[in-house]
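Bug report (template v2)

What were you trying to do?
Predict the complex of my protein with iron/sulfur cluster.

What happened?
Run completed; filing so the output is reviewed.

Input:
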Amino acid sequence: MNERRRPRLPSVSGERGRGGAAFIDEDRLHALLRERPEAAQVRAALAKASAKEPLTVEETAALLTADDSLVEEQLAAARALKNAVYGNRIVLFAPLYVGNACVNDCTYCGFRRSNRDAVRRTLSGAELDQQTRALVRQGHKRLILVFGEHPDYDADFIADSVRQVYAVREGKGAIRRVNINAAPLDRDGYTRVRDAGIGTYQVFQETYHRATYAQVHPPKTRKGDFDWRLTSLGRAMEAGLDDVGIGALFGLYDWRFETLALVAHANHLREVYGCGPHTVSFPRLRPASGVADAHPFLPSDDELERIVATLRLAIPYTGLILTAREPAALRRRVMAYGVSQIDAGSRLELGGYTEAGDAQVQVREREQFELGDVRSLDTVMRELVADGYLPSFCTACYRLGRTGEHFMEFAIPGFIKRLCTPNALCTLEEYLVDYASPETRAAGEALIARELTALEGDKLAGKVKDRLARIATSDERDLVF
Ligand code: SF4
Ligand code: SF4
């Protein structure tokens, strides 16, 4: 048995979260998607989004059903909005799989319980420490810990794992923000993980279409309860966790429906709890151990681009995450339309950050699904810089108690310029000095010089230069704005 195991399953009775699950009205969403909006209606939605106002589901449906001749306008508006809200910053993170035991039997997942070929493993405390050190040595500052759904992975176990990761010190580095992707908890469970200082708690609905949900999640499994999952992040917010992440697994059902439902979910959280989701994820189905590769609903690359653009326009204050499931070239292409966070150097195999060596060997039986982008963090950093992005490892708001950071970023004039960009520059400099290859360091320093030129004349420039010099010439780190 795992040395850190303290089994405790959440109760599903009497805890559905305020507003129940009525906010996903399938008939209404389908009806909206059958409409054919006038061009003026679509342009009105684009104008509202461009003013950084969140869209209603009706307005979002207009974007999703607009005539093909209006798609270019939508992409251009999304690109402009992304630049206005987030600038050229891209935040980097890495996933760390802690355990792949699972009581569920999701038909699309290599870790489902009926897959006898899956190699099951839960990291011991010592192994979690090793994996974390390996990620810190790559240069990472922000992780997402991933857990299957199993009695071994109760709230205390998750909280314990988070505390262990935060405690690791390796050279000049440490992990500064730990996010979670795990099964839904009850309110008490969310309180326990909140007290461990987690960043975002992610629960993806996978599909918002009930009949499809029932098909891919067998009814006698824990995950078979659609409403328990759908209301889970409401419970998290009621427990005081205001950074939550939602997502859908694209390919299970119609992409327009799932995109609209994600926006309905985001709007519900904002209306009921006063704060929308911190992030939205939109993974596409990938090949996995023992899973058929044919998926009739799988969105094309062009459709994925449209999903990103629509989400960017509809929920301008919410981070959009594009993961290494997607191949490198597509990630480069789609990023411009609204993505704010990507992972890099990722390995999905339990223990993969130390045990697989430098080569990224993908073994289906050991992974939840296959990755599309297996480049190292250093390579991704160099490419981001070459493409004009400012890679950031910033975690400042969370640690300075500026909660609801994504909302402030959106709502407070000058927030990006005064805080996000300086923090991005300082954390990039830390990466370049402590971890980068000579080529990446040269490219990154040139980018920082260009960004400093853009800051010339601003009283902030002196402060930023001072901190960059301290990072380059001393062991001082984590100099946050
Ligand atoms: Fe378990 Fe998650 Fe895989 Fe479903 S998707 S089988 S809950 S690990
Ligand atoms: Fe995010 Fe706050 Fe850093 Fe800006 S300053 S990137 S909002 S953590």
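What did the reviewer find?
Residues 102, 104, 106, 109, 111-112, 148-149, 223 surround iron/sulfur cluster (ligand 1) (CB under 6 Å). The chain has three domains: 36-82, 87-397, 406-473.
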